[in-house]
Design goal:
The chain has about 475 residues and is an alpha+beta fold. The chain has helices spanning about 5-10, 40-70, 145-150, 195-205, 210-215, 240-250, 260-265, 285-310, 320-325, 330-340, 460, and strands at about 85, 105-110, 115-120, 130-135, 140-145, 155-160, 175, 180-190, 210, 350-355, 365-375, 385-390, 405-410, 425-430, 440, 450-455, 470-475.
Amino acid sequence: MKQPTIVISKCLFVSLIVIAVSITGCNNTSKPADSGLSAADARAIAKEAFIYGFPMAANYQTMYKQAIDKKSPDYRGDFNIVSSSKSVATPEDKFVVTPNSDTPYSYLWMDLRTEPVVVTMPKIEANRYYTTQFVDLYTYNFAYLGTRAFGNDGGTFMIAGPGWNGATPAGVKAVIQTETQFAYALLRTQLFNAADLPKVNKIQSGYHAEPLSAFLHQAAPPAPAAINWLQPADIATPSYAIFPVVNFLFQFCPPNPSEKDLLARFAKLNIGPGQTFDFSKFSPEIQQAINDGIKDSNADLDTIMKRINTDQISSGEMFGARDFLKDNYLYRYAGAKLGLYGNSKQDALYFGYFVDASHQPLDASKSSYELHFAKGDLPPTKAFWSLTMYDGKTQLLVANPLKRYLLNSTTLKSYKYGADGSLTLYISHTNPGAAKEPNWLPAPDGPFYGVFRVYLPGDAVLDGSWKKPLMQPVGNNP
């Protein structure tokens, strides 16, 4: 998540032209470009298709870096194998924008084309939060394992792709089905403090995945066809470059019946299942309309940001299953822009700090800030809360001498409190002094934003009766 003027300038797509490729086994054809389409219709369709397709392209970029491109610094391992980060995220981690630094991540990209994948969660202590978030190629959170969904006793679960109708093997606690042939599992394990890291790593070693045939000790089915992987579109500048990527991904995403009319509309610009998008084939007028339509998506995002900054929209409305989002592609787009792979609200709610109490963009080169909680006003949670700092330009964690990227409820005893039991957190670029340092969250010397996460939020957080405190500016920096 981030401040609106920054989102629009930095969270966009690079103007690359990605050449549409022919995929093995698929003879994609496209209608003649333009097809009598008016510039006004082309502009409207391009905006809709960009809002629809951006999350898919952003998701594919992560999959490509983590599971396909072995030369990538973000490569985690092959499909159907769990890999783990042995520590929480730092400013060096760039695999996704707005990462949390509370829960070391584990990763699992699943290829479900020929058979399901069996996932095992270890049993852990009752007071530690852990979760597996399952995300399909559309970026819908289609299921969860872990503390909220199944408790901390662990178990074995089977993840099946579209069309699977086999029997449930003995020993499998539940079968979870997804509508896309590839899917992502992002595992989070709560870290209490630095000394707790070996325990977290031991838990992570208990995360396991294997194809169903291996689980059953049977011969594997024939290998699926090799894929001529498409280079991802770089998400830096808005561009039609995402449309070939979206078309490529549809071969792994059986069209959802609810989107029949929408996809028919996209097909007028050669976007969708079985389509080949070639920008050069359109007339100059339609090319301009496509570019203008993509730019129009920024205005829609700006409108969403204004509603977020006035607490009219929460993260709980931007992340979730398809049935929950109910075809609200603009919310899904905003969620992917602001924090790809955000949790569904039952597992975590995210409260963004992009502006101060006077609705001015946060900038630690111009001011210091305070966040004040009266006694008893901390958010109710069944797990924990945290406030994490992000650089407004990169959307990544902020390097600082203390290597402190967040303040959270697991270290409440280390903070200093007011005589009335209140808690004030200090946000600034320069150290506020020894008396305030325990409550200090270092900020960059410039624009920044903060995300206040509440994991397993209590009822008052879920129903909106708990309100986040405002970020109060304190003086001007020299």
